[in-house]
Amino acid sequence: MRVLIVDDEDFARQRVRRLLEAEGGVEVVGECAGGREAVGAIAEQRPDLVFLDVQMPRLDGFAVLRELQDLPEPADGTPPVAPLVIFVTAFDEHALRAFDVHALDYLLKPVDPDRFRVALARAREQHARSTAAERHARLLAVLGEAGMPSGGGAAGEGPPSPALAESIGGGSSPRAPLDRLLIKEEGRMYVVKTSEIDWVEAYGNYARLHVGPRAHLIRETMNNLERTLDPARFARIHRSTIVNLDRVKEMQPWFSGEYVVLLADGTKLKLSRWYRERLEQRLGR
C-alpha cells in the first residue's frame, strides 16, 4: 500500500514512519506537516492510506477531507481520490468523533506499536477487498457523518434502490419484512438472505451489507432499509448503523459515557445514546 503521513508534529510523523518501516508491503510516498499541504499531496500522490492527524492549525483533519471532496474528478476517467483514513489524535474526544464518522480506525498518541499493527492490518484487509468506488463511498460517508456536505445524507429519505425494489416486488411498503436482497456487483448478481447479514453501515449515498467475511455495496438509504428489514431481527443502533440482533454478544462501556456493541465476530460498533434504551429493551425480550 502507498501511505501518506500527515501531522504537524515532526516527532509524531517520525514515529509513524518508523512503525511503517518495520512492516512489509508498505511504501511511504510522503509526509505533510499541514492540512493544506496534505490536500495537494493526496491529490497528486493518490495514496491508498493516509495517517491523518486530527488537530492541526488552519486546516484540521476533518477539513482536509472536506477539501478532498471538492477536488475535480480526474479527466482521464480514473476514480476520484479516495484514500482509506486512519485518524491520529492526542485527545479522546477526537477519537470518539473519528469512531462516530466511521473512519477506518483511529490511533491515540503516543501511538502504541501493537495498536498500530491492528489498525494497519485492518487497512490492508479493507484495501485488498474493496474497489475504488467503495473507498470513495467510504470517504463520502466520513464527510457526511462529520456534518459536511456530501451530496446526500447517509440516513436520508429516498425511493428504494433497484436492488431493494426488486427484492420487495417494486413496492415501497412491503406487506412482510424482506427475507432476501438482490445484489448487483461488477456484472454479476447475488442473492443475499437478510438473516445472514451481520450489520449494515451507511456509506454516503450507499449502504454496505456485512455478511460474514464479505461486504456488498448497494445504493440505498438507511431509512429505507430499516423500514423493510425484519424489526424482530434488526435494530438501528446509530444513524449510520443497523445490526442483526442475533449477532450481538454484549454492550461494552467506552469512554465519556458512551457504549459500543460487540458482535460475535469481535466487531465493535458505536451505540448512539438515543438508541441505547431501545436496544436494551429489544435484547431483554
What labels describe this entry?
285 residues; alpha/beta; Rossmann fold; OB fold (Dihydrolipoamide Acetyltransferase, E2P); 5-stranded parallel beta sheet; 5-stranded antiparallel beta sheet; 34% helix
CATH architecture title of the largest domain? 3-Layer(aba) Sandwich
- Assign the CATH superfamily of the largest domain: Response regulator
Determine the fraction of residues in helical runs and give it as a percent range.
25-40%
Uncertain runs are 146-158, 165-175
Question: Could you tell me the strand content as a percent range?
Answer: 25-35%
Please tell me about this protein's structure.
The chain has 285 residues and is an alpha/beta fold. The protein has two domains: 2-145, Response regulator (Rossmann fold, 3-Layer(aba) Sandwich); 162-283, OB fold (Dihydrolipoamide Acetyltransferase, E2P), CATH 2.40.50.1020. The chain is built from nine helices and 15 strands. It has helices at 10-21, 35-45, 61-69, 92-100, 113-129, 132-145, 162-167, 222-228, 273-283, and strands at 2-6, 27-32, 49-53, 84-89, 105-108, 180-185, 188-193, 199-203, 206-211, 214-218, 234-238, 241-244, 248-253, 259-263, 268-271. Strands 2-1-3-4-5 form a five-stranded parallel sheet, sandwiched between helices. A five-stranded antiparallel sheet has the order 10-9-8-12-11. Strands 13-14-15 form a three-stranded antiparallel sheet. Helix 3 (61-69) links the parallel strand 3 (49-53) and strand 4. Helix 2 (35-45) packs across helix 3 (61-69) and helix 3 (61-69) crosses helix 6. The relative contact order is 0.09. Mean pLDDT is 78; it is low at 146-158 and 165-175.
